[in-house]
Amino acid sequence: MVPILITEGDPCGIGPEIVNLSQEKLDSHSREKILLLVSSNSFVSYPGWKEVGDPTKISEPGLYVWRKHALTPIEEASLQIGKPSEVSGKAAFASLAEGVELQKKLNGNLITLPLSKEWVLKSGVKGFRGHTEYLADRYSRPTYMLMAGRELNVLPLTTHVPLQKVPFYLKKIHLPSLISAIRSAPIQKEERIAFLGLNPHAGEGGKVGDEEKKILSPMISKMRKAGLNVSDPLSADGAFSETSRHKYSLFLACYHDQGLIPFKMWEGKYGVNLTLGLDFIRVSPDHGTAFDIAGSGKADPESFLQCLEWVSKALSAENSSRSIH
Fold it and tell me: Which Gene3D superfamilies does the entry link to (predicted)?
């Protein structure tokens, strides 16, 4: 039975809280599936979950917690809800690293709860840029971030990089893997794909920058040759309007905020972050650690519930495929 692995994220953020707020839905899924929560500490309690000593020996559906105990007792005692620290960053990264190790052993799918890149770095982890990049490193393959919602799908071509370096990273994109990732995306394949220009008004024919001509147009040409119905560079300021938004099944954004600002404004709590390019499903809530409201009762678990639905549907599709063959 393929498990659903859930990494705890930062224990001082809202990750543990949204898990506990989702108990009814988790109970429903656990009747037929193995859900394994990967924790790094004993700071957070999860009522209704069974503690396990060896996660590789789980064979029956249910809710299970595996505690890695990556922290010392003194470090655990220092953790406080809503107050991030080097220790909480260490805990968050330990949960993610252990989750990946278990995925490799158990061949499961992965839901990652929010962590703070700032505090992971402050904890001493060198070069950490986020879940998507970390997974690319651990699985030695290009990965792509798909922000998937009820009506809008956005794929940032560059993720957590400085804005001034975006043209450099656009040139470095491995087009065959990008094309393969787009083909694997859960979108309407026959519909058009919007490619957003990097510069205002998509460069104004070279008057406001020549990246569209020198970088984007050659990419678009190769994508079209591969059979993808991709637009010419579009002016990003109008691409998400009421009339334009429904013309495309996917928006390719040149940089993080270009695509994620309109996505989060439109999809809100119903959006999820799906990693393309892996042999398994990795999905994450479309929000951060929200330290400012952690423990206040204001957290909304809807995006986490959407993650559960994504993984559940994928598992059902896999099982159906196996039964046919």
Answer: Isopropylmalate Dehydrogenase (3.40.718.10)
Tokens coding 252? 């390719």
- What is the chain's alpha carbon radius of gyration, rounded to the nearest angstrom? 20
**Among the CATH numbers 3.40.718.10, 2.60.40.10, 3.40.50.2300, 3.30.70.100, which is that of 1-141+278-325?**
3.40.718.10
Task: Name the pTM for this structure.
Answer: 0.89
Q: Which residues contact 174 (CB under 8 A, 6 or more apart)?
A: 142
Other C-beta atoms lying within 10 Å of the C-beta of residue 276: 22
CATH of domain 143-273: 3.40.718.10
The string of pLDDT tens digits covering residues 278-288 is 999 999 998 99
pLDDT in tens, 212-225: 999 999 999 999 99
Single-letter amino acid code for the residue at 236 = A
Task: Taking residues 134-145, report their average pLDDT.
Answer: 94
